[in-house]
Amino acid sequence: MTKAILLLLMALTMPMVVNAKNIKTPKVYIFGFSASFQDSTIYMTDVQEITNVWIESKTKFLLGREHYSRQLNEYLTAQQHPNRVCLVIFALKREDAEKKYLKMRKQYTSKSKRKYDMKYLNTNDFKFSTVNLDIEEEPKK
User: Fold this and answer.
1) Is a pLDDT exceeding 60 seen at residue 19?
2) Structural domain includes residue 4
3) Are 126 and 34 in contact (CB under 8 A)?
4) What is the DSSP string of 78-125?
C-alpha cells in the first residue's frame, strides 16, 4: 500500500510533458531587420507575405525563423555587407506585422537615434522564400 501511494505521489509531482502541436498556416506576414556592430547601417525589408509556413500552436512562434534570418544574411553578404545580425519579425495578420514594422522603424529613425543610416530593401531587392521544414502536422481530433 505504501509503495502504491509513493508511486502515485511521484507520478503527480513529476513535471508533465506537454507536446506543442505544429500547424501549417496558409500565410504569415514577415519582415527582416539587420544590424552590425561594425557600422551604423541598418537594413529593413518590406512586410512580405509568405505562404505555407509552420507555426507552433501553443506559442504561435514561427518555426524555422533561423532559416528566414539566414536568407537575409546571405543576401546582404552577397551585396558586400558581411557579418551582420539578421532577424525576422512576423505576424499572422498584415495589420499586426505593419504595426510591428512601424514601431521598429520609428525606434531607429527618431530624432534621438539619427546616428543610424536606415536602408530599406523592397521586394524587388530581396524576397523571402518559403522554407520547407518537412514537419508532419499533428492529426486533427
Assistant:
1) no
2) no
3) no
4) HTT--S-EEEEEEESSHHHHHHHHHHHHHHHHSGGGTTSEEEEE-TTT
Say how far apart CA 109 and CA 61 lie, in whole Å.
28
pLDDT category of residue 25 using cuts at 50, 70 and 90: confident
Hey, how many other C-beta atoms are within 10 angstroms of the C-beta on 39?
12
What confidence score (pLDDT) does residue 69 get?
96
Q: Flag whether 128 is in a domain.
A: no
Number of structural domains (the chain) is 1
Q: Give the integer Cα–Cα distance in Å for 127 and 49.
A: 10
Quote the pTM value: 0.77
Residue at 102 is within a domain: yes
Length reported for the chain: 141
Question: Could you tell me the residue range of the domain that residue 57 belongs to?
Answer: 21-121
Residue 75 domain-assigned (yes or no): yes
| Beta strand segments in the chain, E | 22-35, 41-45, 48-56, 61-62, 85-91, 117-121
Specify the pLDDT at position 96.
Answer: 97
Give the three-state DSSP class for 61.
strand
